[in-house]
Design a protein that fits this description.
It is built from twelve helices and 18 strands. The protein is an alpha+beta fold. It folds into two domains: 41-139 and 328-482, Sandwich (Immunoglobulin-like), CATH 2.60.40.1230; 145-324, von Willebrand factor, type A domain (Rossmann fold). Strand 1 (29-32) and strand 2 (35-38) form a beta hairpin.
Length: 486
Amino acid sequence: MKTIKKISFFAVSVFLFWSCTSYDDSMNYSFMDGMYEPVETEKYKDYEENPFFSVSEHPVSTFSVDADGGAYANMRRFMHLGQTPPKAAVRIEEFINYFTFDYANPADNENVALNSELAVCPWNAEHHLMRVGMKGKSIPENEMPNSNFVFLIDVSGSMSSPDKLEVLKSGFKLMTDQLRDNDKVAIVTYAGAAAVLLQSTNGDEKSKIKKAIDKLGAGGSTAGAEGLITAYEIAQKNFIKNGNNRIIIGSDGDFNVGPSSTEELIELIEEKRESGVYITVLGVGTGNLNDNMMEQIANNGNGNYEYIDSADELVKVFINEKSKFYTVAKDSKIQITFNPDKVASYRLIGYENRSLNNEDFVNDSTDAGEIGAGQTITALYEVVLTTNLSAGPYAQFDFRYKKPGESESRLLQHSINSSPKQMAQASENMRFAASLTAFGLIMKQSAHKGSADKQMVLNLGATAKTFDPNGYRSQFIDIVNEWKPD
């Protein structure tokens, strides 16, 4: 792979390089064809792909937003090792939502803006792609609310390899440098039991916070549930009204003491999410990564899930996109009502584990996804249009969300009525989303991938890089260029 743009965090890069090129018997790597690859103890859940639905029978599609990017970064780890990720590890919506799109900001009185587009589907010319986009309100840094963070750090024995705990330590120190004087941070660790390493400390005491982080070492079993309970207790004890209250958990997800099944932890998280405390889950490491558990903790705990595969990803999460830690829209739900006169059938691409019942859309007690400040969310439908050329929208795009601190949702509505374009004439937003989707369909060995291939991915993506904050689109093209499909 081509080297990702260089940064000055040399120590972190050394750790990551070491983790990919050295081996000892205590690490969960296997040796094959001259390189190390993840062993089969990593845990993913394979969701069946969404099928096509007839609009005459099922005109309404309802789902929760997904603001995660973990599946994309995890894919990149496999690709850098010369591997293809397991099908179950591929969540196409996370490939797309890893990236920021060039969407307009919301109106002054709203926290979210909506947009849409139609274009011919590149992998099936008889079909079209319908893109629906959302953007969370941007907040200037000097206007961001004060934060109450709890760093919840897994220090169990499975975290001892350099691509795990040492990477997290570097990341949390990067975040410490971003704290403002009136922000607060506490540190909770868990191995065989939970422990409070640092009581809530003001952001102007950066040296004290970093010294606590430097003390972290790995060993023992993994009482993740106890750690979560302790972290929520501290977050609530130091709760900032109208502030940003968030737990940031770093782990490989290998919980083995106390409640440890995904179902048990989801139940625990569901009890805690009404506290007003959000959660960010950071996955690390290779070999025993429990991707399914961590993604579900984030989905059910008013949070988001990211995977840390490189030093650059630390910078992305903790510096370049730190505004995502500030939620501007919670319980965000999408409902698309297709016009049967214009659309014969449709398939939502991705979001398989985010589907909602249609009646959940108006039920404000139904949990859904969160959108951070300045964050964009994108979803694509593959649709079959009718031959009806009469006037009228193709679909109605309804969106519900709650502003932070509010319990009643707000309704936004957008009519999807723009004329379909050839993909070459579509916006860069559409072309880049289509490129990522085609790549994801190939990675997932999808029955719907049609004629999608490497060259199609490159043709679509390479022409859609004018808007490329921090160079992440160019990095994707580099990955695809070096990819050797099976």
